[in-house]
Amino acid sequence: MHQKLLKSAHYIELGSYQYWPVLVPRGIRLYTYEQIPMSLKDNPYITDGYRAYLPSRLCIKSLFILSNETVNIWSHLLGFFLFFTLGIYDMTSVLPSASASREDFVICSICLFCFQVCMLCSVGYHLFSCHRSEKTCRRWMALDYAGISIGILGCYVSGVFYAFYCNNDFAPRVVVMYVIALLAFLFYISKVPERYFPGQLNYLGSSHQIWHILAVVMLYWWHQSTVYVMQYRHSKPCPDSVSH
Ligand SMILES: [Zn+2]
């Protein structure tokens, strides 16, 4: 057994100094930037660790190997489970104990459903971006963009519903969300930090991974803010002079 494991172990470079043993299933090998098809060439500062030319079955199997997409896939897969769990927790505990109205339940469900769709579209894209058919890759990429739009829509729905409520605690929370979103976007477009350390952040620490984690943080922050305002609304109804 030990011999067998050793035989299928494949050593990859993590950063410029360490070598990590990785178990690579038969049929999956990792490629350098020069070796991958044009459609995958997006970031020259990520020099190695690419999956490419895989059939669907091996794309799915690649979930369990270390490639330059591993953190991207798992960050949003865990993000999906986070929002799924939060959904159950909200529906069974948080909302009932805040004596939430039917509207609150609907808004909260739409918000969390959109977040989960957003996470799953991203997981799908990063899992199947290495598919051997370029058409399939393009479809998944379109779905990833659609997922981002759906995530934003989820924020928007709860934002519109609660933003005009008579308490001024909501505005700073919206500002924090925009700051996180801006920061995430800046990492996304600038390709910092790998731009300054080409080839050293192939597996860990690249801009896209930071963007992914900030996206989860942002949606989580938005969910917490929505729940906070909803609870506030029920504990302190608007004074008559403000509501009209
Ligand atoms: Zn992504």
Automatic annotation (TrEMBL):
PANTHER family named among the record's database cross-references: ADIPOR/PROGESTIN RECEPTOR-RELATED (PTHR20855), PROGESTIN AND ADIPOQ RECEPTOR FAMILY MEMBER 3 (PTHR20855:SF15)
Protein name according to UniProt: Progestin and adipoQ receptor family member 3 isoform X2
InterPro entries in the record: AdipoR/HlyIII-related
Membrane topology field: Multi-pass membrane protein
Entry similarity comment: Belongs to the ADIPOR family.
Domain of life: Eukaryota
Transmembrane segments: 71-89, 104-128, 140-164, 170-189, 201-222
Organismal lineage: Eukaryota, Metazoa, Chordata, Craniata, Vertebrata
Pfam families: HlyIII
Primary localisation category: membrane
Keywords for the protein's UniProt record, in alphabetical order: Membrane, Receptor, Transmembrane, Transmembrane helix
